[in-house]
Amino acid sequence: MAEALKPLETRSTCCYCGVGCGVIIEHDGKQITGVRGDPEHPANFGRLCTKGSTLHLTVQPDSLAVRALYPELRTNRESQRARTDWNTALDHAADRFAQVIREHGPDAVAFYISGQLLTEDYYVFNKLAKGLIGTNNVDTNSRLCMSSAVVGYKQTLGADSPPACYDDLKDTQCLFITGSNTAFAHPILFRRIEDARAANPAMKMIVVDPRRTDTAEQADLHLALLPGTDIALYNAMLHVMLWEEWIKPDYIAAHTEGFEALRKVVREYTPAMAAGICGLDKKDIEKAAEWFATSGATMSMYCMGTNQSSHGTHNNAAIINMHLATAQIGKPGAGPFSLTGQPNAMGGREVGGLSNLLSGHRDLGNAEHRAEVARLWGVDSVPEKPGLSAVELFDAMAEGKVKAVWIACTNPAQSMPDQNLVHKALETCDFVVVQEAYRNTETARYADLLLPATSWGEKTGTVTNSERRISRVIQAVPAPGEARHDWDAAMDFARRLGNKLDNAQTGKLFPYANEEEIWNEHRESTRGRDLDITGLSYATLESQGPQQWPFPAGATRGKVRLYEDGIFPTASGKAKFVVTEHRETVEKADAQYPIRLTTGRLRDQWHGMSRTGTVARLYAHEAEPMVHMNAADMARRNLKDGDMVRVKSRRGEVVLRLLESASVRAGQAFMPMHWGRNAMSGLGTNALTIKAFDPYSKQPELKHAAVQIEKLEDS
Ligand code: SF4
Question: Per the database record, which ranges form the 4Fe-4S Mo/W bis-MGD-type domain (predicted)?
Fold first, then answer.
């Protein structure tokens, strides 16, 4: 039972990263005055990082200058948007969407939503597109961060369900962090890692990252592999495990399928061969394999560096292969644990909020699943044709095939790869709706209709963190201006659109009076599925605190760890090895673009900085965008620390300051992802990045682009 709060305190959840820390919001009923970590929350036990502990500063009265406070509409592209009322705004939107649907069919409209929406918001958008309109064109910025993890889990373990949890760190003997700067991207989880290491000095920590990040600095073994060579490393580690007979044949025989095919492939990946591909010392590969296989309890944690790759799904599968071969799964302290970047990327997965998924971890490609969802929703059918994934969606907009788009709680004009193309797409699309808390985003500039949305502290619902833990988000203060909840505005629009399309079912499809009614329908959609939460109500979450799924009817607590019985949710009950092979990144460095650019997060900023960018103290760590480069590369180009440089790829260029950094190897450079258009540069980091994507997950290769870097002549 959680401790009682003071009268004007509200228990909620941080809205930034996938750690999902609990917060207590201090307020006076009108204004948020402070925030502190919730000591009862099992993700953070009272701790908050720099971003979480300054959340209240993002909702001070002076932040209203950048908030969207009322609907704004322009009826032609030559005019400026002007203030309007909600009725006019939503009627206009419904008219425009209905016209496009009548003239061009349902696939000419689309929704692009966000892992920062609450589960209830996500559910309504998904139903609006797939249930009412009859298009699967609903995708999310989570496609950019975790879709490779989703497919990686499904291909190997049979379901999109991270098997481990934060508490497992207490029992972990070897922590294998790969493609994750946990110290910056998941700071409170990293504190837990530090605690676990302090309590267990024998615990080994391996970090795989091309850069010497703050996380890598603390590793017992840092494998600074060449970008994109992950699979060669993992296959070589498995090769060593086989050679040394560190694998677990009994577990493989009883609980897995497909090992022989993988064995034949990894036989070729000798440590010496992989050392050449990865730019590593062969002995370090052997050491990593030994620690991984023989520790007794190995946990892998991985994130964007693994997922944002043209072979991201197989990066995930190759990690999971090692866990299955060594039986490092389904026991305390062990398992392949993909970390979610955003606060509710996991909730979006639960409701099927991607263009190829359906509610309750169902697949669009499965006719039975489509029929189940149609029955649940009371519609004739759910369309079979897969919707457009994020990159495909903006391509289709640029080609004039998608003519109306609704973008909620995300800023694709800054966060999508190949920004020039995305800007062209937004210019080409006939009607762009942007539903946003902030009116100053890159994407809001393109809005024909800007709808003000509520933000953290002003809305209610649920989010699910990386360890499958569902937490309540609770409104503490009234929304500013005329801002409305995302689900509420989407439902109002749906009802109007349904009437214009003469859909008699609309009222039945969208009957919700509040978030809890949406939640209750969502949980029913999970009945009998791997994530079954039919035993979990808002009241349970409030009385017993955040819970992990599954939590079926009759359960008294959520499931801490999955697959402890060795039974996997596949047809045979066995996990599957996936044959993975080394492949190059799509864009290679060459004579014209000789530097390999990677992107990532800073400690104190979040995504496109709409929120963190309003807090002065969060600039103390890094005040401006910089490109980090190795001293040897700088000397070769006659560059000095602090020089203004032009960074150019085949897709665009940006101008920013140069920072000498020993954290990047020669031939590589790093840029933070956060900055968009700035005083020095027409576009942001993603003007340089590439839209090529993984064939299974369709997640773009945001981590790898070839660039040239040269001094700005007059700097
Ligand atoms: Fe928020 Fe993540 Fe920091 Fe926790 S670690 S306070 S969830 S940003």
Answer: 7-63
